[in-house]
Write a structure and sequence with these properties.
By secondary structure, this protein is mostly beta strands. It is built from two helices and eight strands.
Length: 125
């Protein structure tokens, strides 16, 4: 079994750690796919204005494409993205330095992700 610290170094998303790896295959093309599920390290939530808050307003799951990992030509990062209720700015989405603003889960991938989310992870770290 691979150590948790080695997997976190490989993925290398600052402020996050790897929770699970979901291995799969594209039904149409047969290409191997990998979904890397991330969790936060930080206990505080940061507004884009810089203010740190103890609680969040709500959260959603966000997915972005990542670089290929060996035979997994299509890989995805799945992580929670939070909205905070800042007294100065109102309800705003927390900015993440490693992702651009956009749709939480790509439309073409949504049915596959929902089917993965219902099943238990194939490999829990």
């Amino acid at each position: 079994m691979v150590k948790q610290e080695y997997i976190n170094q490989l993925v290398g998303v600052q402020g996050h750690r790897v929770l699970a790896l979901h291995f799969g295959e594209n039904r149409k093309t047969g290409d191997k796919e990998l979904v890397i599920e991330l969790g936060r390290h930080e206990s505080k939530y940061r507004c884009p204005c810089g203010r740190e808050l103890d609680t969040y307003y709500d959260r959603s799951t966000r997915m972005v494409r990542d670089l290929p990992y060996g035979p997994y030509q299509r890989s995805w990062l799945s992580f929670p993205q939070f909205r905070v209720a800042c007294p100065d700015c109102g309800v705003v989405t927390q900015e993440l330095p490693f992702v651009e603003p956009g749709s939480p889960i790509p439309g073409a991938w949504r049915p596959r992700w929902l089917s993965l989310a219902v099943r238990p992870a194939l490999s829990r770290l």
